[in-house]
Amino acid sequence: MGENAEAEETNTDAISNRQxxxxxxxxxxxxxxxxxxxxxxxxxxxxxxxxxxEIHTAxxxxxxxxxxxxxxxxxxxxxxxxxxxxDVVAKEKVRLRAPAVVSGGIxxxxxxxEEGVLFNGTLEMTQGIREVSRDIPxxxxxxxxxxxxxxxxx
Length: 154
Hints:
By secondary structure, the chain is an alpha/beta fold. The chain is built from two helices and 13 strands, in the order H-E-E-E-E-E-E-E-E-E-E-E-E-E-H. The protein is globular.
């Protein structure tokens, strides 16, 4: 039974990573670590400690459940389970998972918020990378509506 439980746990971790579409983590700020300053990087960074400053990346920012971040954040994708205080700009998406607490402005084309997340701030949804066509198709009902107006108006 011990082997099956271990295999099941490994499968659960693999599924979890695939679901979040997370690449290999290129840097890690561990639990209990305090960092002050600016972080600029490519790839994926996971933060589980304390960070005060700025974060700039076109990549992925993973904010762990124990993380406390006071920063201006600009990233491609942000997945947060911890605490963020400050303005957040994501070019692709922001995913807030319980028990996340976010205080500040969020600007992103896509936002996902789980039940149990606390969000206090402003939200601006941008068009982002995915341009959506806003063409209005002509409807056959338009001509019948016009005909009905002519009958009413004489």
